[in-house]
């Protein structure tokens, strides 16, 4: 028997109550939100439950919502996959813009190590308990986080590019 969204929702709601919320179908993926302080418990439950079997972390990434309420300015998104039933789910956990921090899941899924480092590097989201949380692609000296919306898209002082090569001339800018 195929794993249904209602089974996942019922098990999570029964176990975690209001810490798991906003269940919805987005495209072909079942999605829900989890309170940031419960994320490790929920992911461990999804992995270890004999019926659910979400043993594979497909992706982990960050999102910046600068115009949202200060308590929901960042989100960490987890994609998990149950290979037995070929079922995928998306989990969102919202974080404060003042101190974007969430517990690491690198102790649950080893592949989360690099994904969390990349999310830290680009968004400045701190993964508490991560064994080696440091920049992975950007220079260590960099003080900003380039995927945040406040980061400028282009350096206005650049002298090494010619707008003509990009289809931009003073007449059509």
From TrEMBL:
Signal peptide residues on this chain, from the entry's feature table: none
Localization in the cell: Cell membrane
Membrane topology category? Peripheral membrane protein
**Which keywords describe this protein according to UniProt?**
Cell membrane, Membrane, NAD, Quinone, Translocase, Transport
A molecular function (GO) term: NADH dehydrogenase (quinone) (non-electrogenic) activity
Ranges for region Disordered: 153-173
**Cellular-component GO terms for this entry:** plasma membrane
Enzyme Commission code: 7.1.1.-
Tell me where on the tree of life, at the top rank, the source sits: Bacteria
> Chief subcellular site?
membrane
Which residue ranges does the record assign to the NADH:ubiquinone oxidoreductase 30kDa subunit domain?
Answer: 33-155
Q: Which PROSITE patterns match?
A: COMPLEX1_30K
InterPro entries under this entry?
NADH_DH_suC, NADH_quin_OxRdtase_su_C/D-like, NADH_UbQ_OxRdtase_30kDa_su, NADH_UbQ_OxRdtase_CS
Please note every region of biased composition (Basic and acidic residues): 153-166
Q: Which reaction does it catalyse?
A: a quinone + NADH + 5 H(+)(in) = a quinol + NAD(+) + 4 H(+)(out)
* Function as written in the Swiss-Prot or TrEMBL entry: NDH-1 shuttles electrons from NADH, via FMN and iron-sulfur (Fe-S) centers, to quinones in the respiratory chain. The immediate electron acceptor for the enzyme in this species is believed to be a menaquinone. Couples the redox reaction to proton translocation (for every two electrons transferred, four hydrogen ions are translocated across the cytoplasmic membrane), and thus conserves the redox energy in a proton gradient.
* Entry similarity comment: Belongs to the complex I 30 kDa subunit family.
In terms of NCBIfam families, this protein maps to: NuoC_fam
Summarize the subunit comment: NDH-1 is composed of 14 different subunits. Subunits NuoB, C, D, E, F, and G constitute the peripheral sector of the complex.
Name the record gives this protein = NADH-quinone oxidoreductase subunit C
Organism, scientific name: Flavobacterium terrae
